[in-house]
Amino acid sequence: MLREQKTAKVGCRYEGMLETKSNNGARSMVTLETAEKDGANKLLEEILHRDNLNIAYLRVKRNGGAPGIDGMTVEEMLSYLKKHKEELLASIRGGWYKPKPVRRVEIPKQDGGKRNLGVPTVIDRMIQQAVAQVLQPIFEPLFSENSYGFRPGRNAYQAIKKAEEYYKQGYVRVVDIDLAKYFDTVNHDILINRLRKEIKEEAVISLIRKFLKSGVMINGIVNKMQEGTPQGGNLSPLLSNIYLTASDQMLESRGHKFVRYADDCNIYVKSQRAAERVMTSCTKYLENKLKLKVNQEKSKAGSPLRLKFLGFSLYKTGKRTGIRPHGKPIEKFKSKIRQLTTSRKQAKPIAEILKSIKNYTIGWLGYYSIANMSSRINTLNEWTRRRIRQIFWKQWKKPSARFENLKRLGIPKRKAWEWANSRLGYWRIADSWILHRSLTNEYLASIGYDDIAKRYEALHSNY
Predict the structure, then answer these.
(1) For residue 258, which of 20, 320, 396, 398 sits 20 to 30 Å off, Cα-Cα?
(2) From the CB of residue 294, how many other CB atoms can be counted at a distance below 10 Å?
(3) Which run of H or E residues covers position 114?
(4) For residues 217 and 68, what is the distance between their CA atoms, to the nearest angstrom?
(5) Among candidates 155, 164, 169, 159, which has minimal Cα distance to 322?
(6) What whole-number distance in Å separates Cα of residue 383 and Cα of residue 404?
(7) Alpha carbons 343 and 430: distance in angstroms, whole number
């Protein structure tokens, strides 16, 4: 059996180095030392430079995340590196560094399906981050102006704003092409060939290939990877953009208006007939040239006023066009609030529930605050307050407790007794005048409710 090699033997070939079969067993004419002196591994040394690795370490630590298959956490990473840093660097330079398989995690999707994520070990995440930091500036000038995902200085807001701009210019039909399990179906040979056009160091190409081939652990069994770049790795977003740049160039050569964010791409045209024609031609290109699979059921050609892009859609009232959240994110918001406010056998303290609601709504509004939704957010605000008032009524339970609490909150004794014995359902009581007068908006704010309407107005005013 072969065991993992721990030390480099200068001048000798070993597994992981790219040599032809005809050289099998032959002594290399270029040793690691001479390669470094001649600058042959200049890019690799830039990746392994102390400053670059320090930045990569800090980013991985800041991002946190779950451990990989070895169980090492981001907090344990520093102590490991202090002991094994030189050994790790020698293994990468020598060519016998072997990334561990990623841990498979399945994330539920809104449509009922599941998204496969791959969680690398924290050390592999750091090395991937170091590689991405050096390669990003090399490939960034080659990327399309219409690509907004995972690029410095670009975001989803700019992408949806560009979509709005195209609509105002008369491109009132959109081709929404859905790639089935894109990150799991990237063709390794095509990707490596695209990398080789800009990267001339085989040591770097070999390192990237090892990440692509590292495998995935599912239920304790390691499965080899013949294609794909696991979604969840630090290098995957950059490789994703490199792979789809060919598609961007094709669209630009044909004069199309489009917006791409990672694997989400919308192409804007002026008629439904043109949309259907573009759908056919782009599907053919993606499947034949890039070996990707287009999901025919989810891919659509229609109006951007109805179709969802990055959680948003457009709206038109008279001559005014704007951005709004799509209906699905609104339903997801309400579903999450229901989950947080649904009483169980042992109800959580109100303060804990309000804190959970605040944490969720801060993130939700942080993303969707670009949209025009003042009336919608006011409705959601009142609906959320109603859910909270319902929690109070449920937790008070007995008529005696309801009577005492209503009195404490300023309700006259007679009315407090009358409502404490009401047989109306929880949801109806939650919207009654008695709880609006006792559990006022001001009172809810005083105990920790974060007014989402006020937060939205403050965030939206920045756009």
Answers:
(1) 320
(2) 19
(3) strand 114-119
(4) 10
(5) 164
(6) 26
(7) 14
Structure tokens at 174: 């959109």
Q: How confident is the model at residue 251 (pLDDT cuts 50, 70, 90)?
A: very high
Contact indicator for 118, 73 with CB cutoff of 8 Å: no
Helix ranges restricted to H, 38-180: 42-47, 50-63, 77-94, 122-139, 156-168
Dihedral sign, Cα of residue 318, residue 322, residue 327, residue 330: negative
Q: Are 293 and 280 in contact (CB under 8 A)?
A: no
- Does this model's pTM top 0.70? My answer is yes
Non-local CB neighbours of 14 within 8 Å, separated by 6+ positions: 5, 8, 94, 95, 96
18: which 2 tokens? Answer: 């790219």
Coil vs helix vs strand at 68: coil
Classify burial at 378, counting beta carbons within 10 Å of its beta carbon; exposed 0-12, middle 13-18, buried 19 or more.
Answer: middle
Beta pairing, strands 264-269 & 257-261 = antiparallel
Task: Identify the residue whose tokens are 């939650």.
Answer: 430
β-strands 216-218, 102-108 pairing? parallel
137-159: per-residue pLDDT in tens? 999 999 999 999 999 999 999 99
Beta bridge partners of 102: 216
Q: What pLDDT, in 10s, does the model give residues 166-211?
A: 999 999 999 999 998 898 899 999 999 999 999 999 999 999 999 9
Q: Per residue in 200-248, pLDDT tens?
A: 999 999 999 999 998 888 777 777 877 888 788 899 999 999 999 999 9
**Across the chain, which distance is largest between two alpha carbons, in Å?**
99
- Written as six digits, the tokens of 52 are 């670059």
For 304-340, give one letter per residue: b (16+ CB within 10 A) or e: beebbbbbbbbbeeeeeeebbbbeebbeebeeebeeb
**Stretch 435-451: mean pLDDT, rounded?**
95
Of the candidates 87, 88, 84, 97, the residue with the CA atom closest to the CA atom of residue 14: 97
Contact 96, 200 (CB under 8 A): no
Phi, psi of 173, rounded to the nearest 5 degrees: -125, 145
